[in-house]
Design goal:
Layout (H helix, E strand, L loop, with lengths): L4 E2 L6 H12 L19 H13 L3 H8 L4 E8 L3 E10 L7 E6 L25 E6 L17 H14 L5 E5 L2 H12 L4 E6 L13 H9 L4 H17 L1 H8 L1 H10 L1 H14 L8 H12 L10 H8 L19 E6 L9 H4 L4 E7 L7 H4 L1 H12 L17
Parallel strand pairs: 4-5, 4-6, 6-7, 7-8, 8-9
Antiparallel strand pairs: 1-2, 2-3, 3-5
């Protein structure tokens, strides 16, 4: 087993110059004459402005310097059938004896960067618990290795994260995730229930309770009308299903064809991701520097600017007995204590009772503002939930043997 090594993010000058040449030579499409361009996708004026700033004004080296202030590491992690995989991760080890080990798992189109805002909030003190935080770049994302062998699906992503935690000395731990972080951490609970003791999620992908599997909950569901906010949430979910998920169909069916656009055109990658940053957040005031830092992590990814979409195909085409489909993550995982965070502008917003079909819910929060990238948009809520779940008086206080998060 290899030891973790400090890692410095350092994109070659030649790669930056090549990006600028591509941006300078970019062609742009026309668009319809309408006051509501967002109905059709990312507006030309926004994408052109961002691309020109990316070429002429954005300072990647400044962003790189800020990211290198994080405790970045890399190590090789053994995954069955795939050998050793080089994984980049942020590891904020607490100085508090008994701090709670926490795996933070990002999704698409996010990255390890999403953990940045909650790191200072999880150091403990003032009566709050402390955490050892581990935030990897998933394989094919960020500064982790590309996987070119078919079949690297949810069980393998789960195994990568689990073995990383074991290699770092955390035999039992807790997790937090949204988007693919929801799926990955939920499958970790399915496959490694003796190690994953509690999970907190901010994407609540769940179904209505059924009389065949959960009759008491189904009866409660049948007798309890939805609140007005829950009805609005279902409308949001329906919007995503009918108007917002074409990207997922492409990622999950023919990722290679789409990859040519991302490998060749930084403007294509920018527009693809920027649309989601707009549509999936709750009027979050993205600065151009924030947007371009997020997109640049994808463009300068160790795995290349197209590898990230493969997770959709592999997760949909590699069933196993334990994980017959990615929908296993939306079913009961009873051995793992569960915390739920509901946000009104998430891509899927389900009634609260649906969330109770996922497992033993011990903590729940409902926010009036926030969207898909919760740790970035509402770090106060994510950190607050974790503090309440694992702090004194919380349902998961002391759940990790010998770890209560306090001196």
């Amino acid at each position: 087993m290899s030891s973790p090594e400090p890692y410095t993010i350092s994109v070659p000058d030649a790669a930056i110059e090549k990006l600028k040449r591509k941006l300078a030579d970019a062609d742009y499409p026309d668009e319809l004459e309408t006051d509501d361009q967002w109905r059709y996708g990312a507006p030309l004026s926004d994408v052109r402005r961002l691309a020109q700033y990316w070429e002429q004004g954005f300072d990647w080296r400044k962003a790189e310097t800020e990211m290198n202030k994080l405790p970045n590491f890399r190590k090789k992690v053994k995954v069955e059938g795939f050998g050793e995989i080089d994984v980049h991760f942020v590891h904020q080890r607490s100085e508090v004896e008994g701090a709670v080990p926490l795996l933070f798992c990002h999704g698409w189109p996010g990255s390890f960067l999403e953990v940045t805002k909650i790191l200072p909030l999880l150091k403990g003190g003032d009566g709050k618990p402390a955490f050892h935080v581990v935030a990897p770049s998933l394989p094919n994302f960020g500064f982790s290795q590309s996987i070119l062998k078919p079949g690297f699906a949810l069980p393998q992503y789960a195994e990568t994260c689990h073995r990383l935690m074991l290699d770092l000395g955390y035999d039992t731990y807790v997790t937090q995730g949204g988007d693919w972080g929801f799926y990955t951490t939920r499958i970790m609970g399915v496959l490694y229930p003796q190690h994953v003791l509690a999970s907190h999620i901010n994407l609540v992908r769940a179904n209505p309770p059924s009389f065949s599997s959960q009759p008491a909950l189904a009866l409660q569901h049948a007798l309890t009308p939805y609140s007005e906010s829950e009805k609005i949430g279902l409308e949001r979910s329906n919007w995503f299903t009918t108007e917002g998920q074409a990207y997922r169909q492409l990622h999950a069916t023919k990722p290679q064809t789409l990859s040519y656009a991302f490998a060749s055109s930084p403007v294509a990658l920018l527009a693809w991701i920027y649309e989601k940053l707009h549509d999936w957040t709750d009027a979050y005031p993205w600065t151009d520097d924030e947007t371009l830092t997020w997109v640049s992590i994808y463009w300068f990814s160790t795995a290349g600017p197209n590898a990230h979409i493969r997770i959709y195909y592999e997760a949909s085409h590699n069933p196993t007995k334990e994980v017959p489909s990615r929908e296993r993550a939306s079913e009961w995982v009873g051995s793992v204590k569960l915390g739920l965070a509901h946000f009104p502008n998430e891509i899927t917003v389900v009634p609260r009772i649906w969330g109770r079909t996922l497992g033993s819910v011990v903590h729940e929060s409902v926010s009036e503002k926030g969207g898909h990238f919760a740790a970035w948009e509402r770090p106060d809520v994510i950190a607050g939930d974790l503090q309440k779940m694992f702090g004194k008086g919380g349902a998961c206080f002391g759940i990790v043997p010998g770890k209560d998060g306090y001196d």
